[in-house]
Amino acid sequence: MLVMANIETNPYKGVRDFYPEDMAIQNYIFEIMRDTAESYGYEEYSASILESSELYRAKSGKELVNDQTYTFTDRGDREVTLRPEMTPTLARMVAKKQKEFSFPLRWFSIANFFRYERPQRGRLREFWQLNADVFGLESVDADIEIINLAYDIMINFGFSQDNFEIRINDRSLVDKKLAELGIDEDTSDKIKLLIDKKDKIENFENELKKLAGDDFTFNLEANENINKIISGLKKAGVTNVIFTPTLMRGFDYYTGMVFEVFDKNTENNRSLFGGGRYDKLLDIFGGEPVPTVGFGMGDVTIRDMLETYNLIPEIASSTDIYLCVVNKESLDGAKDLANDLRGQGLNIIVGSPDKKVGDQIEKASKNKIPYVICVGPDELSKRRYKVKNLASGKETEVTENGIVSLVFVE
């Protein structure tokens, strides 16, 4: 047998292994996202992680396609890309069945994505993201709803309104200013990309003047659209919204309102996630225009923020009861009991009689399983069992039929 002693045990750079405890936290994050989206009436969808590279070249932006995607040629000589974002895929799906749908559509997904970037805090090469979108509503009510949904997710994670702020802008304000200055489309794109990265660029003002000229300033006032959105959010109790004229977001497909959620903590002061309005994305498929607004919320930045604020909850075991088997003769009876209890909705582990009773109980405690029942000849013959709550130490003797009631009540 060939032995490969030097194979690396670490995962590929920029991706993660999810051990059970990590997976439990990940599932908690997904649960909050999913439950909140569904509370607004959003329906879940999914799609393959592989897409034609042409789709991203058409709409995602040159930087993302040229520098950040995992793109390769398959065995059929087709150029394909591992999904770096969901919006183009979603647009493709809607365009395919556009005439069959009754708009508006409220959809969400929780999917994984790949971008070839330098791994750092809050940014990995593989990540998971909630995408929530409303198709078919042109009014600011949709913009208000989508931001309100993002806000509620943050609140449901346990953050207070003082922990984060929602920055909002309308890209048409900058587009209008650049048009008034007579700046051509190619230079305008460079300016918007520069603005999007202003916090990462030294001598930003000088670089901006090189492209836009000395007459370009950020003394822009919120337009009627932005004022309506902010006013509507305040009526809904969302008061941490700030008009930010320098906010652009990098994707080419945004056509109007854009927003980002920022963590205000000095230990994690950064953009967490965002989105905006993209009313023309379906144009590349030749379909009728459909007004759309949405956002994407990544799991990496959210977990970092949960850790910063000590908001990751104690994750309970998914197993309800550990059946501690006293001896080999009791194993079959313990298995029968386990099957009966599973049939009534409980999750059961059957221990090994090769292990001492104390060791089995210790394993259950280590794995945070809430209840232990020791199963031996006496218990099986009498059909009465002592159910021990490992957290409190309380022990209750019940019949087999009483086990389920006891666990569910407590």
What would the keywords be for this entry?
410 residues, alpha+beta, five-stranded mixed sheet, 14 helices, 16 strands, elongated
Write a compact overview of the structure shown.
Helices cover 37% and strands 22% of the residues. The chain is an alpha+beta fold.
Notes on the protein architecture:
The chain has helices spanning 20-39, 53-59, 62-67, 87-96, 140-156, 171-180, 185-196, 204-212, 224-235, 299-308, 331-342, 357-366, 377-382, 400-409, and strands spanning 43-44, 50-52, 70-73, 79-82, 105-114, 126-135, 164-170, 241-243, 257-263, 270-277, 292-298, 321-325, 348-350, 371-375, 384-389, 395-399. It has 410 residues and is α+β, with helices and mostly antiparallel strands. An eight-stranded mixed β-sheet has the order 1-5-6-11-10-9-7-8. A five-stranded mixed β-sheet has the order 13-12-14-15-16, with helices on both faces. Strands 2-4-3 form a three-stranded antiparallel β-sheet. Strand 3 and strand 4 (79-82) form a beta hairpin. Helix 7 (185-196) runs antiparallel to helix 8 (204-212). The chain is elongated and about 90 Å long. 31% of the residues are buried. The mean pLDDT is 91.
Strand order of the largest sheet: 1-5-6-11-10-9-7-8
Oligomer: single chain
The Rg value, from CA coordinates, equals 27 Å
Class by SSE composition: alpha+beta
- Number of helical segments with 4 or more residues: 14
| Residue windows where pLDDT falls under 50 for at least 5 positions | none
Separation, N- and C-terminal Cα atoms: 53 Å
- Overall shape: it is elongated
Strand content: 15-25%
| Count of extended strands | 16
For the biggest sheet, the summary is: 8 strands, mixed
| Mean pLDDT over the full residue set | 91
Helix content: 25-40%
The H/E string reads HEEHHEEHEEHEHHHHEEEEHEHEHEHEEH
